[in-house]
Each structure stands twice: as structure tokens, then as C-alpha cells.
């Protein structure tokens, strides 16, 4: 796979993740729209309100900005109608809801314009992004109270009428006609009161049923018929749990009556089954029905359908759980921060990159503690809304270095304003680095191959003029020998004279030595060129050659003479006088020795340090050894196990390829020999090359 494909893959993953985040944001927006469409006010709070829907703003006659960041007490008078302090009562309800006990109560609110209104409040604890919140549902019951007040007035009026008429009956014993007239008026008033009560009962938006003490249904209203799916004629001689049973109701147990034990009123939520068998979530209020003497004669149960509200809550919880699972399953670390870089959200996957748990990261307080100060251009983020592919180098909890690809995006998620995703590209960068390194090494190996070809050509070109020098020098030497007696005779007869700008008395003895030096230099050039040609020519596959180790070492040192001269003034070589012999390949053994001596030369810190090369025959073991010792910088214990690994080198800055000892080890293994390294930092190095000796070496 090429580098372009490797780079494209994380980009596609990032795009897919961004697309998924956009889908989730769309889903949240949809649920936000449903929330705003509800007639009841919904507010989310901790100590203060952090979010609300449009209905809450409408009920309180205040803008969203006037609500958020304020406490519930700021939207209530100092005292509630029951005489209790609003602040104390509100805190008790909120604490109880936060502890897991849902609350439902009536509350007097102070609107944004200063007017007061009556509401029915429900409080319930929820978990959002790992934090505890309380969701408040408020319903404006001003109209309900007005209708309730009207109904109460009607009851009071009826009671006053009954009381007045009763007194009139008691005081009207002497006038039968008056008594009849009185009864007629009472009946008319009662009929009118009953009609008014029936109208209130039937027009209630909540489903109402009236039962006797045996749970027999006496009366239902239209709202209950619509909610339960039962008509008035369907409920004759039926009990409440036969018509619209609660989740835990049966013929031996009635939830409403059990909750009214010791209470005149009970509020609770449960699921009920309608006529079609469908489960409907309801909020119930059960009230004891008493006669004039205070004796319970039945109960009135009010039903309010909260199915849509519960679905909304469940959908919100599902969406939150889905987002949490999605973020926990991806390998990228995801952060949401506010404008001050404080963490609002930290994904659990942060531990795979930074080594910290999400809780530990929260303790760090700010994202800059992980990614550094000013790791992105804030002005560019404001202008473009998103900055992609920021490369950062950071340390994890254990101090290990990581290369990250960071994306930053402006968002609006509760108090969070910035979304930061971090993708670990450490392995990718290491692979790219190793690929580049191997490419460089292959290029270097190619150069070495080219150099071998060039050496063969250069050796041929050097040999031709060198042969001219050798032949002509020998000819000139013979010519000088022939002319010397004549020049000596002339010198004896005529005295000293100049020859080539120099006096004859000075050069007569030096010229023969000059010819000898030129011939010696030419012969040295010829030997070096021949050694280079031998070293550069293609290796023979023959592994059965009889190889004199002293000869291989001598030729190797001829090639390295200049490098040795530049590296040290203290070079010594000791040849075993028995001229040890091995069975193998001459060129390959020469390559190994050259590599070992080169390494020693490069390890010397100055020219006063020594290098010693020794050949030795161990007849008892049947082994031939070449020992290379130097007074160089030595090798660390960390590097020692990797000396013969391919491409491992500590000299990359001076052109090392890491192939020399790797190839040498392979060659020695082919010869059934071994390489041993003994070294310590600052103590020099001793390398022992051991090969099987040929029998009867001489």
C-alpha cells in the first residue's frame, strides 16, 4: 500500500466520523424541535437553569436569556400560598428529586413582567453526559384553577342553597303551599347546580372517573372515554380495574385505593391498558370522595396522558446513550470545551492515546494541559468555523511521544463551544520514517554497486598510464646508467656544472634513488589497483577455495592503508607464522576483514589510539582466528544485541547503512564460522572472527 492510500484512509475515517456527528446533531435538533413544540414548559437545571423550551419562556413571559443561569427562586414570590418560604420549599423539592424521588406539586410563579401565575410542577432527576441534572416540567394551571374555583363556588352555592332551604323547611311547618314552593325552588336549584357540575365534569381536559367503595364505576367523563376507548354504556356494572387497569391493579389489589390509605389525595404515575390492549402512560391523581359526615363513600380518579412526554424522555435518554456508546467505541480522543478551554466532555477513548482515564483528564481542568497552549489559531476558528489536520507532538502519561492529527470545530452543545478530535498517527509516521530510511539505504546500496563497477573501470584506466611510467622509468634508469660515466669524466675534467637547473655534484648520487622511488611507487599503484579489481569483481560462488588468511589480511590492509593512516599512528598487524589456511571464498572473507577494520578506524576518537590485527591458528580446536582490537569509543550494552541486525547503525550521520556487519555475519555463517564482540563504552572493542581451519595447514 502506498503512502497516498495510507494518508487517505484516516481522512475517510475522519469524514465518516464527522458525518455521523452531523447526523447525531440533526437528531438532537429534531428532538429539540419536539421539545419546543410541547405545551408544557421543560427546564433543565442543576443549581441554576441550563436549558429550557419555548413553552417555559411563554409561561414565564421571559426570554430564554432571562431564564438561563438563574435559579428557580428568582421566578417565585418570597412566600407560597401555604405560607412556606419559597426558597426553602424549592430547595427541598429539588434535593428530593435529585436524590431519585420524583416530585409533583403546585407552585406560585412570578413571571418576567412581575405578574403571578399558578403552575403544576414535576421534578425528575436525569443523567446527561455523566452529570446529574433535574428536569422540571411546568404546566400553567391558571385556567384549571379558575374552573376549579368556579366549581368550588358552585359547590359552595349549592351547600348554601341546601342549608338555606333546609332552614326554610324547618321554619315553614304552617304553610304547606310555601313548603311545596320551597321544595320546588330547591329542586330547581339542585338541578341547576347538578347541571353546572356535570358541565364542569364533562368539559374537563383530564379523564375523570367516580367510583364507590367497591371500585364500581359510577360516572366517567368524555375525556376518560376518549383516553380509555370505552363508551359510557360499556362501563355499566364494571369496576375501574376492568375498564382501565393500572399496571399493578387486579381484583385483589387496587393501586389507587392502597395509596389513599391514610391520605385524602395521592399522585403517582403508571401504565394503564385501554380498550384495545394498548399500554398508555398516565399521571394519576386519586382523591377520596366523602359524604357530609366525612365518611369515605368512594373516590375520584383523574387521568392525564403522559405517553408523549415519556416517549420524549426515553428518546432523549436513548439518544444520549447512543452518543455515549458511539464516542466510547471510536479510537479517536474527543473533547468538548468551553470558551476558556475548560473540559465539558471527555470521551473514554482518551486513555488509548494519552494514558489518562477520562476522570483523570477532567482533573487536568483545561485541554491545553494535554495539547499545549495555542495549538490552534483561534481567529481562524472564528472565521472558518473549523480547522483540520493540525499535526501535534505530545507526551502521554508515561512520557511516551505521540504524533497526533487534530481537528477543531466550533459547536454549541450546552456550555461547550469547541469540539476537538485527536487521531493518533504515531505508527503511521514511524512506518513512513522506516520506509524513507529503507529507501535511503537501498539508494546507498545502489551507490555501492555503482562504485564497484566504477572501481573496475578506474582501475583499468589507472593501470595503462602506470605501465607507461614503469616502462619509461626503467628505460630512463638504464640511460642514466649509461650516461653517468661520461658525465663523471666531464665533471672530473671541467669541474661542477648545472643539469636541469641543479648542480651535477648534488644529483649524481640522488638520481638512481629517484628512479628507484618512482618504480617503487608505480609497483605500489599496480598492487593497489589489482587489489581493487579483485575486491570489486563479481563474487565467485565457489566456497571450496583454499584461502590463506594472512594473504587475505595483507590485501585488505593494502586497500585500507590510507584510511588506517588517517585514523591512527599506532597500527600493528601480527601474522601467524604457520600461514593458516581455511576452506571458503577469498573475496567474501576479504569483505568481512575490510568491514571489521573500517569499523575500528571509524571508532577511534583520535590518532593516538591503537588498532591491532592478529591472525592465529588454534591447532587443538582446528580453528583459525582473526582478532581486531581497537581503543575506540566502544559499544553500549543496549546496542550490542543489534549489531548484526539489517540496517542497524550508530553512524547514520556519517553515511552508515547498517548493512556491513549484517552481511559479514551472513558470510561467516556460510563459512560455518562465528563473530564475537567484546566491548564496553569508553573501553574499546575486541572482535574475534573464527573460521574452521583446513587440515594439514602449512
Report on the architecture of this protein.
The protein has 698 residues and is α+β, with helices and mostly antiparallel strands. The chain has six domains: 37 residues; 102 residues, 2-Layer Sandwich (Beta-Lactamase), CATH 3.30.450.20; 167 residues, PAS domain (Beta-Lactamase, 2-Layer Sandwich); 95 residues, Beta-Lactamase, CATH 3.30.450; 107 residues; 158 residues, Histidine kinase-like ATPase, C-terminal domain (Heat Shock Protein 90, 2-Layer Sandwich), CATH 3.30.565.10. It is built from 21 helices and 24 strands. The strands form six sheets. Strands 2-1-5-4-3 form a five-stranded antiparallel β-sheet. Helix 15 runs antiparallel to helix 17. About 1% of the residues have low confidence.
- Whole-number tally of structural domains: 6
Any idea of the CATH topology of the largest domain? Beta-Lactamase
Please report which band the strand proportion falls in: under 5%, 5-15%, 15-25%, 25-35%, 35-45% or over 45%.
15-25%
The main pleated sheet reads as: 5 strands, antiparallel
- The CATH superfamily label of the largest domain reads PAS domain
Residues in helices, as a percent range: 40-55%
CATH architecture of the largest domain: 2-Layer Sandwich
Mean pLDDT: 81
What form results from the Cα inertia axes?
Answer: rod-shaped
Task: State the total count of DSSP E strands.
Answer: 24
| CA radius of gyration | 52 Å
CATH class of the largest domain: Alpha Beta
Adjacency order of strands in the biggest sheet: 2-1-5-4-3
What class would the helix/strand composition place it in? alpha+beta
Weakly predicted, low-confidence segments: 653-658
Query: Count the helices. How many?
Result: 21
How far apart, in Å, are the first and last alpha carbons? 58 Å
Amino acid at each position: 500500500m502506498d503512502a497516498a492510500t495510507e494518508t487517505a484512509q484516516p481522512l475517510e475515517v475522519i469524514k465518516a466520523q464527522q458525518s455521523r456527528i452531523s447526523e447525531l446533531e440533526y437528531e438532537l435538533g429534531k428532538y429539540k424541535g419536539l421539545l419546543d413544540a410541547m405545551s408544557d414548559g421543560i427546564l433543565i437545571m442543576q443549581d441554576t437553569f441550563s436549558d429550557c423550551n419555548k413553552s417555559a419562556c411563554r409561561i414565564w413571559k421571559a426570554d430564554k436569556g432571562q431564564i438561563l443561569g438563574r435559579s428557580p427562586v428568582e421566578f417565585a414570590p418570597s412566600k407560597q400560598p401555604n405560607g412556606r418560604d419559597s426558597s426553602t420549599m424549592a430547595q427541598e423539592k429539588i434535593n428530593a428529586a435529585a436524590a431519585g424521588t420524583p416530585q409533583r406539586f403546585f407552585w406560585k410563579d412570578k413571571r418576567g413582567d412581575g405578574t403571578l401565575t399558578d403552575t403544576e410542577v414535576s421534578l425528575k432527576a436525569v443523567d446527561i453526559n455523566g452529570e446529574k441534572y433535574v428536569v422540571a416540567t411546568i404546566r400553567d394551571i391558571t385556567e384549571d384553577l379558575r374552573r376549579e374555583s368556579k366549581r368550588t363556588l358552585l359547590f359552595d352555592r349549592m351547600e348554601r342553597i341546601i342549608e338555606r332551604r333546609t332552614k326554610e323547611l324547618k321554619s315553614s311547618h304552617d304553610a304547606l303551599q310555601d313548603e311545596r314552593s320551597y321544595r320546588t325552588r330547591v329542586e330547581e336549584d339542585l338541578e341547576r347546580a347538578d347541571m353546572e357540575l356535570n358541565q364542569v365534569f364533562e368539559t374537563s381536559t383530564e379523564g375523570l372517573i367516580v367510583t364507590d367503595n367497591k371500585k364500581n364505576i359510577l360516572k366517567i367523563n368524555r375525556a376518560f372515554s376518549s383516553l380509555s376507548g370505552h363508551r359510557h354504556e360499556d362501563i355499566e356494572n364494571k369496576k375501574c380495574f376492568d375498564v382501565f387497569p393500572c399496571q399493578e391493579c387486579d381484583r385483589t389489589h387496587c393501586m389507587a385505593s392502597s395509596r389513599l390509605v391514610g391520605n385524602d389525595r395521592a399522585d403517582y404515575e403508571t401504565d394503564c391498558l385501554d380498550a384495545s390492549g394498548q399500554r398508555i402512560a398516565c399521571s394519576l391523581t386519586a382523591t377520596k370522595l366523602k359524604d357530609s359526615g366525612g365518611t369515605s363513600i368512594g373516590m375520584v380518579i383523574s387521568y392525564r396522558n403522559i405517553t408523549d412526554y415519556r416517549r420524549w424522555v426515553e428518546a432523549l435518554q436513548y439518544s444520549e446513550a447512543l452518543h455515549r456508546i458511539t464516542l466510547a467505541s471510536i479510537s479517536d480522543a474527543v473533547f468538548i470545551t468551553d470558551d476558556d478551554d475548560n473540559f465539558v466532555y471527555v470521551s473514554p477513548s482518551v486513555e488509548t492515546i494519552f494514558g489518562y482515564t477520562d476522570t483523570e483528564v477532567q482533573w487536568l481542568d483545561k485541554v491545553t494541559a494535554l495539547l499545549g497552549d495555542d495549538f490552534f489559531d483561534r481567529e481562524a476558528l472564528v472565521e472558518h468555523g473549523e480547522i483540520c489536520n493540525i499535526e501535534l507532538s505530545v507526551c502521554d502519561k508515561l512520557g511516551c511521544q505521540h504524533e497526533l492529527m487534530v481537528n477543531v470545530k466550533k459547536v454549541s452543545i450546552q456550555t461547550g463551544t469547541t469540539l476537538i478530535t485527536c487521531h493518533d498517527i504515531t505508527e503511521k509516521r514511524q512506518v513512513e520514517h522506516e520506509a524513507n530510511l529503507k529507501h535511503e539505504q537501498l539508494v546507498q546500496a545502489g551507490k555501492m554497486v555503482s562504485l564497484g563497477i566504477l572501481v573496475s573501470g578506474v582501475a583499468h584506466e589507472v593501470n595503462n598510464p602506470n605501465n607507461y611510467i614503469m616502462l619509461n622509468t626503467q628505460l630512463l634508469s638504464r640511460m642514466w646508467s649509461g650516461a653517468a660515466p661520461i658525465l663523471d669524466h666531464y665533471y672530473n675534467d671541467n669541474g661542477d656544472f648545472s643539469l636541469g637547473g641543479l648542480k651535477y655534484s648534488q644529483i649524481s648520487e640522488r638520481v638512481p634513488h629517484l628512479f628507484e622511488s618512482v618504480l617503487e611507487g608505480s609497483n605500489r599503484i599496480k598492487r593497489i589497483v589489482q587489489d581493487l579489481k579483485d575486491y570489486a569483481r563479481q563474487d565467485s560462488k565457489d566456497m571450496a577455495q583454499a584461502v590463506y588468511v594472512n594473504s587475505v589480511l595483507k590485501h585488505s590492509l593494502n586497500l585500507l592503508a590510507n584510511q588506517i593512516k588517517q585514523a591512527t599512528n599506532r597500527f600493528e598487524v601480527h601474522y601467524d607464522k604457520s600461514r593458516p589456511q581455511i576452506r571458503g571464498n577469498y573475496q567474501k572473507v576479504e569483505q568481512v576483514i575490510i568491514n571489521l577494520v573500517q569499523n575500528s578506524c571509524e571508532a577511534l576518537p583520535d590518532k593516538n589510539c591503537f588498532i591491532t590485527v592478529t591472525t592465529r591458528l588454534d591447532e587443538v580446536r582446528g580453528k583459525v582466528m582473526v582478532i581486531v582490537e581497537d581503543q575506540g569509543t566502544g559499544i553500549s550494552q543496549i546496542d550490542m544485541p543489534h549489531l548484526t541486525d539489517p540496517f542497524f547503525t550508530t553512524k547514520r550521520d556519517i553515511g552508515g547503512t547498517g548493512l556491513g556487519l549484517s552481511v559479514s555475519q551472513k558470510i561467516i555463517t556460510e563459512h560455518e564460522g562465528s563473530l564475537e564482540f567484546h566491548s564496553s563504552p569508553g573501553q574499546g572493542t575486541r572482535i574475534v572472527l573464527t573460521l574452521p581451519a583446513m587440515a594439514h595447514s602449512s
